[in-house]
User: Fold these one by one.
Assistant:
Number 1:
Amino acid sequence: MKKTIILVMSLLVLAGGAFAQKIKGSDTMLPLSQKEAETFQKEGKGRVTVTGGGSGVGFTALIDGTTEIAQASRKIKMDEKLKLTEAGIPYKEVIAAYDALAVVVNPSNGVSELNREQLEGIFTGKIKNWSQVGGANLQIVVYSRETSSGTYEFFREHVLKNKNFASSVLSMPATGAIIQSVSQTKGAIGYVGLAYVNREVKALKVSFDKKNYVAPSVEAAMDKSYPITRPLYYYYATKYEAKVKSYINYVLSPEGQKIVLKVGYVPLSK
Amino acid sequence: MNKKFIKKLGEKLIHGLLTLSGSITSIIVLLIVIFLFKEGAGLFNRSTLGDDMVLAVNKSNPLNKIKAAKVKAIFDQQVTNWKQVGGKNDSIIIIRLEDLSTYYTEEQLGANLENVGACVSKLTDSLSGAVVYVQKKFVTKDFKGKVLPEEHLSLTEFFFGKEWFPTAVPSAQFGILPLILGTLWVSLGAILIALPLGLGVAIYLAEIADPRLRGVLKPVIELLSGIPSVIYGFFGLVVIVPLIQQAFNLPVGETALAGSIVLGIMALPTIITVAEDAMRTTPRAMKEASLALGATRWQTIYRIIIPYSISGITAGAILGIGRAIGETMAVLMVTGNAGVIPHTYLQPVRTIPATIAAELGESAQGGIHYQALFTLGCVLFVITLLVNLGVEYVSSKRKF
């Protein structure tokens, strides 16, 4: 009796493992992929399991062959590309949606707009007081994400122009922790995905040309007027193409893009 | 005869099984340690530039090598003139692979990047202040610049380096001094908070509280150790961090002190339970003899009960310290994780376990960052070992 139960259970596990498509990687994309997978499953098109861990984790899993799709909030890095080639895994890249990064401060902060140079100064530690960018005389407390996050990489590349963050930057393990800390620290500044912005923090208007300051919103990201916008990717090994294609196509379909908007990201403009 | 033989056989079997389980456990522990050190040892043979990357300068540049820390300063544009790093007076021009497109058109680079090597060579030759950071395969035999030798991480840089930038491009920084100090700082604070408090509670529970109250208190305290550490972390972030910020009027509440308080609370149940159990094993006869000699209750406690149970109390303290040094999640959430050398308890710090937990997932297996994290694990292992040995040495001297 006991044996039968074990046998049945292991069969079930095996079956589930065989049919489910595994997605792993970026925490930023987690809510999106989960929602997509949920409706995808509800319509009876297949099973999908989604796990997070950071974009880097997803690529490592793709290289090790423990996932079929890696979700990433940044482009694949050179060394990851080389590792994939060495392992003999050709892959394909698909842009699933866009995300805008909002720079957030405490709601009590008087500053409401910053340009790229000021942001660079703040995050690399050259600007230390809010009075230097037109605010109150208050020390700036900079929050960043851990180095494993694609959000961190994207912000460094795009806003800091490849310079390193100051070593005094406080790094938090999750976006939720950044929101929590920024909402309770007066001089705080941090960056989060657009979908995470809520009433406890204030999103700043940002300008890269020092002329047009744009507040982050889905519309502004769609017409590309908001500068800190990034694509969100799915990477999959070509050998799994047949298996994952239906899911990828679903995400790219009009229904899938509707979910993108619902979760708070920016759909691919048609 | 037969019966006796079977009995003997059974005993032998049990004896063998016990020996086997003991040795298997020891072997597994040993294997884990060997694995840890094996993975960590390779760090010092790796180039800090990253795999398959090279750094090159113009031929006329007098510098023959640049230290890793200076490479980072150059690429962060904190240093903009070669004079500042010991070269001649010439401004530094940084060229990464991506920057080539500002000097050459895509046609010149080739559709499949086949001309990149030639372009890099030409560019390095024409710009006297150039510093180039590209893949090794683009540096061909007829490269006209000067390729700098690979820099390896030295032990001094590792243990006394003040910057931890494991993913910095092109030159990763692996200075673990701030991390070691952060770990010791937070653990020390935690023990300073937890030990007196824990001992006090243990004495109260073992000797002073009446049995009914103890029946309620002890399970409640033991319940504390069953709470997952991430809950402690969240509690710390939402309650203790703002409290510290307001109490000391700080710009930021995520500090070493917050970590110490959270860890102190987490170590309490271990210390209390073990110490109290040890105190309660004091023979009744000893206590009564002391009281009969006219000693007060307090005199009995610190002259008879504490010396008698000192080994148990030390065991509790070791376990508490062990938990504090190795704790990951709770610390990760409340200390702010800024990799700077702490000067006061009211500053953010970054600890070794938090660093490993936060970064291991991202580092590609076998890469230099991955190995650095394993080396960090070795360092943590050695610290814990030293603490345990130290405490055991002290407690063995106190035996009476």
Number 2:
Amino acid sequence: MINALKNLINKLLKNLFSKKKDVKLGLYGPPNGGKTTLANRICKDWLGEDMGEVSNIAHETREIQIKEQISIKSKGREIDFNLVDTPGIATKIDYEEFVKAGMKEKEAKQRAKEATKGIIDAIKWLDEMDAVIIVLDATKDPYTQVNITIVGNLQARNIPVLIVANKADLKKADIKKVQAAYPQYNVIGISAKYGNNVDKFYEALFDIAG
Amino acid sequence: MPHQCVRCNTFYEDGAKEILYGCSCGGKLFFFIKKEKLDQLKKLSEESALTKKEKEQIESDIFDLVGSDIDRDQPVILDIEAIRVMRPGKYEVDLVHLFKNEPLIFKLEDGKYMIDLVQSFDRFRKK
């Protein structure tokens, strides 16, 4: 009886003071929504270094990128997680769009192939995730096939989701429209590039990953 | 069910030795074709705008996409569709298929497919 009580107290104390470890936090979304910019923001804020290259041409991230052991603190709480930046998910990849952006044909075709492989990998990795941040470009229509498919599949797998309406610094950004599109989720408007409203974002992270 | 060589477009009946050992052109990739689509496909192949070089490029790109684990000397037969290669560098992805965790299958042209066997076997093993 005394042992049982001891165990119970130990368990309670352990839960109270332990941090959740090795939470895999995935960044998902369509290309050019700002996933890597947000990953860089998180890494800069908590590790003091960048995570990956960013570009105006879509599909810059074509391989899964992982940054391990990021520890964030907010209002006296702390979580450790591994941040997984994924390639943008799209339904069509056309090298001609990269050529239009100034790339040579051979390089553009290679990029298209790698981007397609990136999509397969991103989706394969979904089952590994403990929580997912969906990064959307708030200046664009939130009701796309890609966005709805990602959100629907995460919901079906019971993976906690936080939606980030990024690029809030731009005039065309419409956070309310993103919120209206996904009313069942917490939607936070931020600018990953300039750091606007990221405090709110970190607080919200605890709700899905803490 | 008939099969078609990715490289030279020759059609083979089910059970043909070429499907097991490779096509006379040296190709080891075959599209699996539904019987009802065969006539339509034969016509399409004749009219296909893809050049030989483009077909070879697609074949090589698909091998890259499927991953390095596949033995390029073994014949590979394909089914259903998750990724469609329109031409080299132009891809269409069926997200619904991909998210369903079904075996990864590539569609090259109408009725032409490739399956990611490695991934399918991995899933089978996990079960």
